[in-house]
Each structure stands twice: as structure tokens, then as C-alpha cells.
Amino acid sequence: MILTPTGLLYAGRRFPCTIGKGGISTNKREGDGATPVGTHRILGMMYRPDRLAAPQPWADPIGTFDLWSDASGQPDYNQWVRAPYGHSHEKLRRADPLYDLVLMTDWNWPNAKEGKGSAIFLHQYRRKGFPTEGCVAFRRDHLHWIAKHITFGTRLIVRAR
User: How many CA atoms are closer than 13 Å to the CA of 110, on its beta-carbon side?
Assistant: First the structure.
């Protein structure tokens, strides 16, 4: 997978996508809204079992109390955690469909460095052209196609522009 200015190239196809509102960054920081430069491996997949079937045998269901910690300085920073959780976090089980299907990258995970950014996912976008907080986002049908064809460990290459 290679992120280009015109979309993501994967398996001989081009998928339009959006990136972080902070653009592409070689110095990713928590909360900067940037998509980090680098070669990131896909090391996990999460899905809402009440909304869709598992696209891969290695996909994990998102439960009612599942969260993602973005609490820099905490031992579980940039980790999948469960409520109740008293630190800064993002809900994985959302009312909207953004996280119905999520591919997790290894950006600053699983051994997170404080302040280097969290939750760099591939997920569904809100609408065409609407930026993310640093993730790479796709049209729903494109994300589902990618998820059905991807293998664990696939590389996402993000180059500086």
C-alpha cells in the first residue's frame, strides 16, 4: 500500500482517501492532526459485530466498553483499553459508522513513546474530502474491499510530499 497525492495504491487499484488535517508529517506529535511519514504495518483489525461480519479471521470485535487511550504519559498510552478509564481516550464503539471497521497500524504501537501520537488507523471517512485527526480514511465500500483482501503485516508506505 502506498499513499500518493491521488489516493492509496493497493493491489493494482487506486482508492481515493483523506489524511490528517495537519497534512503529512515527519515529526508526528499527539494532537497535531498529521498523518506520519513512514512504513507502517497493519497489525490489527477491529470491527463492530452488531453492524458487520468479521472481514478476516484475525479481526477483533469492538465491544461496548472498548476505548483507545490517547493519554500521553500513561502506561497504557496508545493502547486498546476498556471503560471505565479515567484518562484521555477515544471511544471505539461510536454512534456514527467511522469505526465500524478499523485497520490498526503499528505507528507508535505497541510500545508507545510519550507524545509521539496515537491511533493511526485506516477507517471510513465522514464524507469525501473531510480530513481526519491523522488517520487515513476511505469510502465505506473501498475500506471493506481493502479489509477483505489485506493480509496481516501489509505495509502502508507514507512518503513526505
Answer: 4
